């Protein structure tokens, strides 16, 4: 079990000693498709059962086996045995806990990455799914939990009669699939950037604090995207440097381009994240500014009305001997004094900008 | 004393020249178990005294000596002499002040790490204990202050008749034990993540400030976990790189997997810590927002009622000559004026969103 | 298509097999100019159509082809074929998504950078455009979306009879163009610095919060400039280190100077950005200080007037038996008491600086 | 003067050509002690004058010269000449401005570090003093401004008849002295940690702001300790790596242990510093929370009492025609209305948690 | 012009083909002094014109040419040609935009650094000037815009008959000059540290916000100093590593000391900057604390007086039937009730520390 053997040139899924009569397990969410191609042509086969797949024979130059649905240990074991995958690789593909990485094994590479998409619905929650890839001599295996359409365009290109893709080997297919994943990220990041701008426009109008929660959700999503992109960048950097013999020199030039796109993704994500951080600061400064304005208004109002109310209170006292009360123009004099005091205070505020 | 000699192939604990009659000290909290195994079988022995252990003879391929209870210098010295441990290693195991590290000595490795667990009870405090391991040619020694059950699963696997574990050497056992420690961290981090989410849900409802202290406690715990995981990651990285001859190349592939799990732990911890930091910011912004709302309410209330109270005060003055008081509809006119002023201010606020 | 061939010594744009009758597409915003020079002289030709350019023959030592307008795939393909550019380079030049970088291809270098300028108008928005350069043996190609005048000075220097520029090769021209781009940044950063200082002067006077939005816009612009300058610095560093054979050792000394200017740009940008960050902090601290002053005033006013208003209210009560009301000097006594209380509170504040 | 010569095997302080009749300067605070030892024994001599020291002869294997009091250029010069110290080393030891470092000279090492201690007294101020060490072939020189007792335990160990210390060379003595310095730091950091915890307990009770100043002082002290520990760590790392021939391989294992202790010190310091930073944040959040509570109370009180006071004011007006005043139950009706309004507002607050 | 030739052993400023009759330009602010020395002696010459300088002949071992005043292209060109300086060096010295750096040219080093000083006057503004140095075989050139006295002490030391300085070459002179620059920084940083402490003492007393602006100015100054010291440190590190053949091994030991002083400068600057940052935090926390105290006072005052004022208002109403008004002790009962309510509220606050 610890000495992986590479048997990719032979038929696919030819034997599954430990799976036995488990054909029935390959149903429901699990679906397996095999694309085999070369300069001459391209052929796709969909398998409805493992047994069917095991009986299949091929002579094509490049094989691409795509599996949707990960929770199937028997299928995994069959594939693992057919392509000589190390137990650790099989375990990694089956487990949910995988961080993006590239690992070199004897004769093949194992790549793990994540694919993001926004859920439909009012809330537009950001979700992610793992995507695994094994790149060997003449074959590429891809594993995803659900069909999200990331590889649709690649499949179309392969089926076109004069496709350049068919002229290259399995390593170029691997590059093309990684490029499709990166293209998918561009869409997600555009979406993210649009939401940041939408909320930026709502920032000044908001008084209820609803925008605050949105900003914080954007912040979390930005962190999650970054956490997925950083190892992807490291993966691509490692592949570009040329340490991995699976990728031929002419493919490395294209990988360098994919690496560059990944750097671009990270920079545009960082720009959006800076904007979110700035929005949060701006929101809080606007709040603080508003508080100041309110406080100033309250203070001015209090300074103006408190003395006037006191004066009115004084002449509302019931003392027997209050000479002013009996003056002919006392009432108007008091009103005038009140008006003068109020105007004076207001004037001194507007003049000296004291507060 | 400075020239450590490796005598692991001979009997365990056969002589203890400096311990003398200290058999009685190996009681209470200290317990020593020895598991010896090979492809043929596995045997576990529990020692109730050092003397008993000293008399024990073994011929198995791999020895695993597990000690619970660290505060026993005589036992330490006996074991140290039996396995040729450097005085510094003995000192490190006995001391409480140890940071996670891996140190290479002549013929064996010394590993120190920490194991975390949540105390039962209302408060669920996070506690940690040191865990020491010595990996040599054909033997693994583990030292822990208390039995926490981290290695229970490994012991079970060893005892299973067809266990793959028995086919490998001491280095694979060391990997398996480290993996058990990492699995233990996964549980602790899940627990930590759950508590973060629980408090996140309480965030908006809280007005008493109780949630604030909880957030800060989570922040501390996150720091402590990070401080334990970082050196663990460095340890595993060092072991994976292959500088250490104790680990054979085929085991290194498995160590790389453990290293990867450790990176995963750190990333998931960082995600939780980012969430805690975001919660703190969010809490403070919500507070600030609330303050603003209260201030706005207070200011509006003051602006509406202060002028009205002044008017009522003015007509409560006792001047002899106040013509309005004697008008037929004066009272209702004043009430109407008051109503108009109040409504006007309220209207202007709602209209111009002045505050 | 994957084996780039260098044919720069032959005529420019001599054939365009895939462009066909697309001459009409090279109009409107696209304009192509060719400068050819050597120690003997310098000649500039403007092409109004691709066909015209394709028919052109040259024998000069250095060719500089400058293209304004990027959205023209046919022109790009013609140039690409003429100078043997890799499909990835052509794709990069046509795409809008390009981060600053330098890439080495077989026989030539591809450089991508950004040029910034402030839009005219009230708001003075900061805009950027990509600028691409290909440096090969005896030729330099530059691509820009619009004529912004960055290379005007270089063109002038080339046309001067005794220009030192003509004595050097294509690599020195490339250095001169990069230096022109860097000089352009100095202008933009001066402008940026001036705006920072303008807003710094408005900081203390502002009460409306308008300055807040300006500070945040400066913050974003600073980030954008930094994000463009950082890869430019890395590019120049790479060129200076001498890994790229396109640049001869004597040119590298000049590139080191350009690298140094780029470091200077970054430091002066960082100084401005620190100032912006400081302004934001200062603004918020001033706000907080103002809030404190207002609060102190409000509190003092309330402490002084609330007791006095209560006293006035008490003597405004209508109880039958209130002896003070009938005292001869009751009213004046109350006024005096009020004055004393008010003065006492004010005195205690000014004396003990209690608040 | 620039060609240092190592003459450590000869007698100590035998000649002091430039010091001359300066014996009288070696009094007061300066005190010199010489410990000479080997496997056979250990002997300590205290010198009351330089001349006395110059006349002293020794044959021991290891010499440890300890000097208290640094401000004595003549003594420094005598020692410098006796042990062949570079002028820069002499200058460094005499100057107050020294950062922790290790410097390799021809034949000996110069180490500078700092020793911390808390001053007695109410305030418990943290103070530091420089500590210099020169490690050569067969001798160790230590220089301190005052006797702080850091090396007391080492001196005791040397004097014990069966001390292991005597069996090793000067490099092991140097390690032991460095270890004593590190042990001293453990005490200081424990003290620091205790004070952090003391203030943490006072945090919630404090309303005067006194705790704020204490937190800030702890923050400064933490920075100072960190600034001293970081270069100490680098020093030890450098010594452990084995670049310095003064330390033999068997001593390096012990130095690695000291390095590890130093990392432990830094981690525990960082934990305390994180706690201080968290306390500051917590203090401010508690403040902000308290402000919110106060504001809520003030707003609720104002909303309840302002309308009621207005109503009371209205019925205190002196209009001739106010029908309600003459109703039989008008007064009680108004009281009832007031009660209803107050209760209604209070109820709506408690019900809808509006603020 | 691109092949610099070293002609330092010949006469200084002997020919100036491109300067022509520009002798008159060397007046006003420009002043040139030449110090020539060797073990035998030292001689200083002041030139009042370039022609005078050009005619001067020397045979001394080391030449130090010091120029005050940079805005003189003709003089620069003359010196550049005499010492074979690269056009880039000449350009750098003439330009104002120079960041600290060390650059190696064929046969000499070019060093650029900055010198700081505080302007006299009330505000004590921090100003900086560039300082350039060229170190070649047997000569050192220094360029400064104004005489600031930084090199005064070096000049004095050179003129002393038994100066050690004269025994060493040009590289030691260069070290001595750099050391003088570093000593100058010590003075500036002491000044900076003193101002930080002065403002720290004013912190608690300030209520006007004036201290806030001072803190922010210190923050800026700290950043500027740091930005000048960081490249100086890198310069010295590069010189110490020994890559530059201009500095002989025995000088490198002294450069290491200068490097160390530079690290010390940076650490003490960082300590001051941390203190400034802490002061800002402390100021804001004090503000926040004060706001809290004020708010508490305001809230307590409002809670006490608002109910009492309402009660007084109620008994000031003019209803015909208000039985309490006619009670014999109604007035005193109300006063008593008021007193009880006020005391009760005050008591409950002081008792339960509710706010």
UniProtKB/TrEMBL annotation, chains A, B, C, D, E:
Main subcellular localisation: membrane
Family according to the record: Belongs to the CorA metal ion transporter (MIT) (TC 1.A.35) family.
Keyword Membrane applies: yes
Keyword Magnesium among UniProt keywords: yes
Biological classification of the source: Bacteria, Pseudomonadati, Pseudomonadota, Betaproteobacteria, Neisseriales
Cell compartment(s), UniProt: Cell membrane; Membrane
Gene behind this protein: corA
Molecular function GO terms recorded: cobalt ion binding; cobalt ion transmembrane transporter activity; magnesium ion binding; magnesium ion transmembrane transporter activity
Signal peptide: none
Record key words, sorted: Cell membrane, Ion transport, Magnesium, Membrane, Transmembrane, Transmembrane helix, Transport
Stored InterPro entries: CorA_cytoplasmic_dom, CorA_TM1_TM2, Mg/Co-transport_prot_CorA, MgTranspt_CorA/ZnTranspt_ZntB
Protein's UniProt name: Magnesium transport protein CorA
Superkingdom classification of source: Bacteria
Purpose: Mediates influx of magnesium ions. Alternates between open and closed states. Activated by low cytoplasmic Mg(2+) levels. Inactive when cytoplasmic Mg(2+) levels are high.
Reaction(s) the record says it catalyses: Mg(2+)(in) = Mg(2+)(out)
């Amino acid at each position: 079990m610890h000495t992986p053997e590479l048997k990719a040139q032979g038929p696919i899924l030819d034997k599954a000693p430990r799976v036995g009569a488990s054909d029935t397990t390959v149903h429901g969410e699990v679906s397996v498709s095999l694309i085999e191609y070369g300069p001459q042509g391209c052929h796709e086969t969909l398998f409805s059962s493992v047994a069917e797949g095991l009986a299949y024979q091929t002579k094509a130059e490049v094989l691409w086996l795509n599996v949707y649905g990960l929770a199937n240990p028997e299928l995994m074991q069959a594939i693992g045995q057919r392509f000589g995958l190390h137990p650790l690789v099989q375990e990694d593909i089956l487990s949910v806990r995988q961080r993006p990485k590239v690992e070199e094994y004897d004769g093949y590479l194992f790549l793990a990455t994540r694919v993001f998409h926004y859920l439909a619905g009012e809330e537009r929650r950001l979700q992610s799914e793992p995507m695994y890839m094994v790149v060997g001599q003449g074959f590429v295996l891809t594993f995803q939990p659900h069909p999200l359409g990331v590889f649709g365009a690649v499949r179309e290109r392969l089926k076109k009669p004069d496709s350049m893709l068919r002229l290259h080997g399995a390593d170029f297919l691997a590059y093309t699939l990684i490029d499709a994943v990166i293209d998918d990220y561009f869409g997600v990041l555009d979406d993210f950037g649009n939401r940041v701008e939408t909320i930026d426009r709502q920032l000044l109008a908001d008084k209820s604090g609803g925008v605050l929660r949105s900003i914080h959700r954007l912040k979390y999503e930005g962190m999650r995207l970054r956490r997925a992109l950083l190892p992807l960048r490291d993966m691509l950097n490692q592949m570009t440097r040329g340490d991995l013999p699976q990728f031929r020199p002419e493919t490395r030039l294209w990988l360098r381009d994919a690496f560059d796109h990944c750097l671009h993704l990270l920079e545009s994500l960082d720009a959006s994240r800076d904007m979110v951080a700035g929005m949060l600061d701006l929101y809080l400064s606007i709040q603080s500014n508003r508080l100041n304005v309110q406080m100033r208004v309250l203070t001015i109002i209090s300074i103006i009305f408190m003395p006037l109310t006191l004066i009115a209170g004084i002449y509302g006292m019931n003392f027997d001997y209050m000479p002013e009360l009996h003056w002919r123009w006392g009432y108007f004099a008091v009103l005038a004094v009140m008006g003068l005091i109020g105007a004076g205070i207001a004037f001194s505020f507007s003049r000296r900008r004291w507060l």
